[in-house]
Amino acid sequence: MPLITLDNISLRFSEKVILDEINATIHKGDKIGLIGRNGEGKSTFLKVLAGIVAADDGDLKIQNSTRISYLEQQPPEDNDNTLFNIVAHGLGESGKIISKYHNALKDGNISESSQLQEQIESQDLWPYLHKIETVLNRFKLSADSSLSTLSGGWKRRVMLAKAIVQEPDILLLDEPTNHMDITAILDLEKMLKDFHGTLILISHDRSFVKGIVNKIFDLDRGNLSIFDCGYQDYLKRKENLLNSEELENARFNKKLAQEEAWIRQGIKARRTRNEGRVRALEAMRKQFFSKRKQQGNVKIHALEDERRVSKIVFEVKNIDFSMEELELVKHFSLLVLKGEKIGIIGGNGSGKSTLIKLLLGELLPSEGSIRRSKTIQLAYFDQMRESLDPNIKAMDFVSGGKDYIDINGKSKHVIGYLRQFLFTGKQAMAPIKMFSGGEKNRLMLAKILSQPANLLVLDEPTNDLDVETLELLEEMLVDYAGTLILISHDRTFLNNIVSSTIVMEGNAVIEQYSGGYDDYILQKNERLNDKAPKQSITKSKSKKSSQKLSYNDQQLLKSLPEKIEDLENEITMAQKMLSDPDFYQNPDAQNLTIKLSSMEKEIGQLYDKWSELDNG
C-alpha cells in the first residue's frame, strides 16, 4: 500500500499553473529525485506533501500514522538557542522535557533536574535522550553551541539532525547540500543511502543525486513525469523524450500554419459546419503561445574584456595570514597564468573566501607578497547574494536602472537580455523578493556576465540552480578565454571545468593538485598509499629553485616578472596606437611597427628565460 497517493492534484498561484492534475504514488523505500527548472514549483510540491501548502483541487491521501519530516531550502534565522534544544524539539513535547533536563544539568540546578528526572522515568523518555545524543554525534554537532555562531552549511546540518531524530517514514529535503562543504556532502550522502525510510529530495548536485535516488519525478510546466530509474538512465530517457517533443512541436507548427492559411480565406470559416474548426484553431493558438512562454534554453555568454591582460595574473610568494589568532594560510605560494581555470575546495571556515580576498587585495598577508596584473578586469559572484535588494526590480538590478545595457558593443534592451536567462517580461519588472532561490542566482549571473571581464571569481555559483542552467553555465565557463577562480562544493561541476584544484587541507596547509575533484582524490590516495610521489603541483618554486642558481641568476629571476609586465604594458600601448588608422599618417608609424615586432620577440625570450630559471 502506498504511503502517499496524489489523485488529480492541482495548484495555481495567480496565473501560473504549478501542478496540473498530478497523479503519483509514493511507496516505502522510494528514494526520489525531484527535478525541474527554477521557478517550476519543486519547493511548493514538497510543501504540498508536507501539508504546509494546500492544493486547490484533487485528493492527497497519506497512510495513517505516517511520519513526515521536511527540511526547507533556506537555513533558519539566527537565534541563541543551543543545538541540543533545537534537535530535541524535533521530538515534540517529549523532546522539550529532555531539553529542560539537559539545561538543568548544565546549569547545576539539582532541584529542577531531579523533578525532571522523575518525569522522564515515569514517561519512559530515556530512549529519547539517547536518540538526541546519537544524532548530534552523527552530525558532529556540539550540543551546547548556539545556532547564531554557525555558518549556513552547519545550520543546515542542525535542521537535518532535527528532521532525522524524528525517525520519519518520509524525509523531504529541499537543496540539502547548499552551503555544505564536500566532506559534509559525502557524509550526508552515506547517511541517506543508509536511511531505511522514503526520501524525496531536490538537489542541483548531480553527483549527490546520482549516488542516492532510484526514481525521478520530473516537474515540467505543471506536469509530473515519473521515471522508475536512477539519475543516469533518466538523462538518457529524458533526451529521447525531448527529441520526440521537438518532432511533435514541428508537426504542431505545420498544422497551425495550415489552419491559419485556411482561416484567412474568410468565407468558409463563417459557415456553421466550420465553427468547430475555428474553435480548434483558437485552442491551437493558445497552446502555441503557452509553449513559447515555457520552452527555450538559457543562453549564457560571458563578456571578455578586450584589453590585453598580462600573462601572469597573480604571483603569490610565501604568504601567511591569520584571523583572530586563527592561522588560515601558512607559507603558501602560487602562480596563476592568463586563461587558467582553478577550483578551490575545503571545509566550511577553512579559509576559501579569505584566500580569494587575499588574491584580490581586500585583505593583506602578514608575511610574503602578492603581485597582481595591472590589467585585471574583475567580475565577482558572491555566494551570500549580498548585493541583492529584495525590493528592486530585476531589470533595474541588472541594468542599474537603465532600459538598455551594452553587450559586446551593442545596445540591448534589458528585458530582451533577461529573456536569454529565461526571465519573462513580467518577471523582469517584478521585485527580486518574488523570485525563488535558483531564480535569484540566475539573476546574479545575468548581471555579472553582462560585465566585460578577464577574471571571473565565482563563489558557489551553483547553489539552487536547476540542472539545465548549471550545464549551460558549465559550457560557458569551459569556453571562457579569461582566467577563472571557482569555489564550489559541486564535484561534477569542478570535474568538468577546472584544470587544477587548490585544496584547503586544514591547519593552514594549502595544496594545489592538477585536474578536478576526482583527479585530486586519486592523487591524494596515491600519495597516502605511497604508490607514487606526491603529485601536487606548485608552480611558484622560486625559493627552492633559487638555491641551485648563482647569485646573478637569483637576482635576474626576481626581476623578470616586473620586466615582463612593464614590457607587456608597452606592447599594449603600441598596439592601441597602431589600431588607429589615422596614426599611419604619422612619420613614426613605421618605427613603432618595427619596435612592436622587436618587443614581442623580446617578451618571448624573457618568458623562456623565466621558465628556465624557475625550473632550476
From TrEMBL:
Nucleus recorded as keyword: no
User: Where, subcellularly, is it found?
Assistant: Cytoplasm
* Amino-acid positions noted as binding ATP 2 in the UniProt annotation, renumbered to this chain: 346-353
Q: Name one GO biological process term.
A: DNA repair
GO terms assigned for molecular function? ATP binding; ATP hydrolysis activity; DNA binding; ribosome binding
The record's listing under InterPro entries reads:
AAA+_ATPase, ABC_tran_C, ABC_tran_Xtn, ABC_transporter-like_ATP-bd, ABC_transporter-like_CS, ABCF_ATPase, P-loop_NTPase, Uup
Q: Which residues hold ATP 1?
A: 36-43
Query: In the Enzyme Commission scheme, what number(s) does this protein have?
Result: 3.6.1.-
Q: Which PROSITE patterns match?
A: ABC_TRANSPORTER_1, ABC_TRANSPORTER_2
**Entry keywords, A to Z:** ATP-binding, Coiled coil, Cytoplasm, DNA damage, DNA repair, DNA-binding, Hydrolase, Nucleotide-binding, Repeat
Q: Which sequence ranges form a coiled-coil region, renumbered to this chain?
A: 557-609
The source's superkingdom equals Bacteria
- Report the family membership: Belongs to the ABC transporter superfamily. ABCF family. Uup subfamily.
Q: What does this protein do?
A: Probably plays a role in ribosome assembly or function. May be involved in resolution of branched DNA intermediates that result from template switching in postreplication gaps. Binds DNA and has ATPase activity.
Q: What is this protein called?
A: ATP-binding protein Uup
**Native source organism of the sequence:** Candidatus Pseudothioglobus singularis PS1
- Phylogenetic lineage: Bacteria, Pseudomonadati, Pseudomonadota, Gammaproteobacteria, Candidatus Pseudothioglobaceae
